[in-house]
Amino acid sequence: MKEERSLSLLQLMVNEGLVPSPEEEENRKTVIEKLKQIVVAWVKRVAWQRRLPKQDIAVTSATLLTYGSYGLGVHGSESDIDALCVGPYFATMVDDFFIVLYNMLKSRPEVSEIYCVKDVKVPLMRFVFDGILIDLPFVQLKVLVVPENLDILNPVFLRDIDETGWKSLSRVLANTQICRLVPDLKKFQSMLRCVKFWAKRRGVYGNLNGFLGGIHLAILAAFVCQCDPFVGLSALISHFFKKFAFWPWPRPVELQDETLHPTLNPTETRLYMPIRLPFSSYEYCHSNITKSTFYKIRTEFLRGHNLTKDLLKFDFDWHNVLEPFPYTKKYAWFLKIFLSASKQDELGDWVGWIKSRFCCLLFKLEEVQGLCDPNPAEYIDVNIADPHVIFYWGLQAGKTNAIDIKSVKDVFWRNISTGYQGPFGKIELSIVQASQVPKSAQFDTLSQKKKACWKMMDYHQRRIPIYSQHVPQYIVGYVSTNGDPEYPSAGV
Questions:
Q1: What does the entry list as the binding residues for Mg(2+) 2 (predicted)?
Q2: pTM (2 decimals)?
């Protein structure tokens, strides 16, 4: 019967379109191979610009390392690919990655919608390659040759990496270690795919909203796989809910690894749900979990446990476990967050910036109102013409009338108005009843959310040629300006 439950769950994943077809898998592999060839050609061009000896140009190389859902093998049909460009010691991010490689990619017929995202913790290029969205950050290793089959766990390659490069590399390290430490990789992948599906359905997925991100769920799932290596998929899901419904938080969750000797970090254990990164003795996953989101996550763990503790019941149905969270039935009042911009290509910048500051808003709401449920789903009102996005956050019953929404907005505005480089859009905060929520907003928290559409460069602006520092008169690319050549914009 437990095997039957596992098979029915796997079939449900297929029916929901969460498992890519063989053709889609082959297409992704082809895209990765093409990108690897491009970065190898790129690094040899950079080596020539640097006037390296011919023998060094002949042997130097770069590669790509995948991470995220694709790197863990839990991606769906619509998933993007997160790939890290790993270059040798002489290739720089500013000149070579964001100019030379950018121009090489832009000239390719398979590439479209390419732009640079620089003013973030992990700078990257984002583009579409043969119909697949690619996020491509960069790290520089202190070596001449970066082998295609790079063993990123080898300490030889991890010397003297700067802070930005380490942030990019840590994502790959986490994926690599998780895959190495789980006892059965295929069983772990099936389990994680199911757990992510559950988290999205129940509205507890999304680090920016204070919930669990992909890396959090991957480590939690891997931990259960280590604790129960011989049980089937359905039992693993049941054990997952039981384990974390009654976990003694803030005791950290950490994978079993004989090569590491974890040390207690008092700062990190003040987090609500500390989860240790699997490649470090002292580093933890970045977390935005607050009092409100911690309460909801624990509630959903307990609900999952109650529904899966008896898998052998004759009327057991996975659809009950994975039922979308009923926001409009659960909450009578909502905070409506309306974000708009005058142009569509400016909306992504504005929404991305606001979402990166959501924790500030959540903390203020908790201060004046109590618990709040920041639904991660994004909605569009078809009756509004301007480019916009709407969020509806559930509010705790009984205290709604006491909210001074103007003071909340004033505090939040002071936070978001500092440091933003793009054109400001509009933000409106208001309290609405469940009956005022448009019927078009069905609160399907599984809806696919597109990445922020960062503003494209205006090609009518003046463009300044950038010359190689090592080969005079050799143009490596162009930088757009806002009319003043001394102040180039972020777009390349």
A1: 80, 82, 135
A2: 0.84
Written as six digits, the tokens of 91 are 């290739």
Say whether 156 sits in a helix, a strand or coil. Answer: helix
Q: Is 135 annotated as a binding residue?
A: yes
Mind listing the domains of the chain with CATH numbers? 21-178 (3.30.460.10), 186-322 (1.10.1410.10), 327-456 (3.30.70.590)
Shortest CA distance to 282 belongs to which of 272, 295, 268? 268
Residue 56, marked binder? no
Q: Phi-psi bin for 80: left (phi > 0), alpha (psi -120 to 50), beta?
A: beta
Handedness of CA 318, 321, 325, 330 (dihedral sign): positive
Per-residue model confidence as pLDDT tens digits over 254-272: 999 877 776 666 555 568 9
328-353 pLDDT, tens digit each: 999 999 999 999 998 887 887 788 88
Residue 453 has a pLDDT of 35
Angle at 149 between CA 261 and CA 162, to 5 degrees: 55
Q: Is the pLDDT of residue 168 over 80?
A: yes
Task: Find, among 437, 271, 290, the residue nearest to 364 by Cα.
Answer: 290
What pLDDT digit, counting tens, does each position of 136-146 carry? 999 999 999 99
Helix (H, G, I), strand (E, B) or coil at 39: helix
The answer to whether the annotation marks 115 as part of a ligand binding site is no
CA distances from 43 to 62, 96, 101, 115, 162 (A): 6, 9, 9, 20, 20
Rounded Cα distance, 249 and 293, in Å: 14
80 known ligand binder: yes
82: annotated binding-site residue? yes
205 is in an annotated binding site: yes
Closest by CA to 285, choosing from 415, 445, 177, 416, is 177
